[in-house]
Structure prediction request, 572 residues.
Amino acid sequence: MTGARFNGRGVWAIYKFEMARFRRTWLQSLITPVITTSLYFVVFGAAIGSRMSQVNGVPYGAFIVPGLIMLSLLTESLSNASFGIFFPKFTGTIYELLSAPISAFETVLGYVGAAASKSVILGLVILATASMFVPLKILHPVAMVSFLLLTAISFSLFGFITGIWAKGFEHLQFVPMLVITPLTFLGGAFYSIDMLPPAWRTITLFNPVVYLISGFRWSFYGSADVSVGVSLVATLGFFALCLALVAWIFKTGYRLKN
Amino acid sequence: MQAPILDIRNLSKVYASGLLAVSDVSLQIQKGEIFALLGPNGAGKTTLISIVCGIATPSSGTVSVAGHDIIGGYRAARTLIGLVPQEISTDTWESVLATVRYSRELFGRAPNPAFVEKTLRDLSLWDKRNERIMSLSGGMKRRVMIAKALAHEPEILFLDEPTAGVDVELRRDMWALVHDMRLRGVTIILTTHYIDEAEEMADRIGVINRGKLILVEEKHALMRQLGKRQLTVQLAEPMQQLPAGLRDWALVLSGDGTQLQFSFDATAERNGIPGLLRRLDELGVGYKDLLTQQSSLEEIFVNLVSERTGTSSS
Prediction:
């Protein structure tokens, strides 16, 4: 192997390794989110949704589908990627990664690629599950897949950063449980932010998850809380920010190298 | 002389805590050499290895592997290096075969089932290839670590305390493996607390203490230069005190008066032994046995380290 050659085998090795973990824990990885999503439909779709009118011209049960997919996508991308890089740090096997002829970009490609793949699979499974409960339409399928991929990759990058930052399992839980889940619930997953009082609506616009959910929902129903262009720019901005942070981590060796 | 396969120049490492772990170390290792790095706990052995392998970043200095700088040409440099770290760190849920294949591919090597099988057979792991690592004994896990390090066919193998806490059988297997690797032209750098291991395997010895490489020497030369030989004269009759006629020799009479001990330089032209034996005859001091012993590498190591730290040595 020459000095500058792309270590594709190394990337593939990391990707396969991470996907093997997904397969080993498929019950936990796939079935649990499907059950959770089904419960959301029972509670919000059937119990509460039956008493609610349409939101922006969309039946409430169908309206919450994009938000539910986003909720799982964000938390799973984050958890998969953070656990993927944290576990080698925890067990000490990170030595092999650090001593391998593999670049920072290739490492991220392997880990984030696997985490994003798992999340996208999960998102599609939830979409399939949702279609059994409510009639769905996807007006802009290309945009839907693009938002799905971009969000999965961005939050997998964010998870990778979290996994490197984490000093223990409690740190790993901190971000998805105490940051992402509240932001998603308050980001219009189950309601339109137009339903909020003006002051709260303004505050909500500082929540980055609003833009992810809004853009994703637009790809389904063609209507959104904020302009789809703004959603796209916000999502790309978050992606760029995560990329910059990952680049800095590898440049400085932050919590990776002594 | 060939260019060294490992060339370390003025390498230093200061941790964020301010600890100077490696201090201005320069070291050249030739291809095919077995080099043993000795030093007490915290001397800087693992830090030095970690820098060469890319796990730790140097504060200053340069390291090149077969002419490839470990930073600028890290891909080429790391491809040549295999590392067996001190701690047993494995992917516990993976099978032996899967983890070894993973290591090979991570280092950019194409799959080679025949090579992987040979490596596992050499390490008595083939029968366990489908078992999860978590089910293996400590010794077997150590073998897996070695198999992972060898999976990408490295030209330099770092063994950081490879036989710490392993059974006699694995230790013997390890030694055999090292000899086998040497025959294949692999350069081996090992750190160890077991001096007999270094004595058995190494061509050259380096001693590191408090981050400084205080000595690098060919093993036999080191033992010749620093190894004292001692002559023990088993007396026929115990004596109360040393006769005045023996004061020209720095003799030590044992507590029970049955032995005379005489330290001498085996490399000196006149080591004093013939004269001592003649004088014993002249004085009528009978002896029934003579025994000479050479300092072990362990004694040399302890003396070196204690000299540098200013403590008395035995």
